[in-house]
Amino acid sequence: MQLSVIIVSYNSMQLLENCLFSVQKAMLTIKGEIIIVDNNSNDGSKENLVAKLPGAKFIFNNENLGFAKACNQGFKISSGDYILFLNPDTVLSETCLTDCISFLEKNKDAGAIGVRMLDDKGKFLKESKRGLPSPSASFYKLFGLTAIFPRSKTIAKYYQGHLPQNENNLVEVLSGAFMMINRAVFEKVNGFDETFFMYGEDIDLSLRISQLGFKNYYLGKVSITHLKGGSTTYNYKYVNDFYGAMKLFVKKHYNDKSTSYRLILNAGIGVRKMLSIIALPFR
Fold this sequence. Notes:
The protein is α/β, with parallel strands linked by helices. Helix content is 39%, strand content 19%. Strands 1, 2, 3, 4, 5, 6, 7, 8 and 9 form a nine-stranded mixed beta sheet that branches. Helix 2 (45-52) links the parallel strand 2 (32-38) and strand 3 (57-60). The longest helix has 21 residues, at 259-279.
């Protein structure tokens, strides 16, 4: 089997229906499967989707196990040579999957690939391609310098701003909203780190893929629509979970760095978290 598409869903039934419609159209010429892992939704997903998708595989959890663990669950019952981890708030173009598979088959050094993501108005989403959250990259982003110099290789490295959005390039970090991975590579890295409940797991996985000697490619010539935040509630819990994941990443990957290095990173995360909490009433 060529491809396994794994989608983790939590109270996103309507978004998921639209996503699956686009996935089915994109898979017409592909031998593949669709696996949906539901993290204990209470929006009628179980009652409505199973009947509508008789060919899909479902896992219904009795509690919200988080994104990383649910992805690993889906992988365990998959059989594709390539695995696509996909958010339910995405819509694929008809040639998206065939283009991605073709690229992976031609580029054996590729561990994972991501694509050019656009919002519902066609605006490019900068998180389609990212750099690692180093102290300098985090500093430039935190204090707004990245927005002032969006194409600087140094100042805008958090979003790899120097790389054209319409071209294929190597990047450090791919988005978990759309990440296609060679099965053998995913097995070698032992899947997602389940310590990350939600957020940060894509940064962690991207880094571990590159540490094994494989490459992360951003395909600027392949586009999807990502209804960013369509399945996310922006509240204090979201802010706490997101920045908690960033601290976990620092603890895991930068523990061998100097104390001052880690202090700067954690201080930046703390300031950013505080600003995000202050901004919540205005979202």
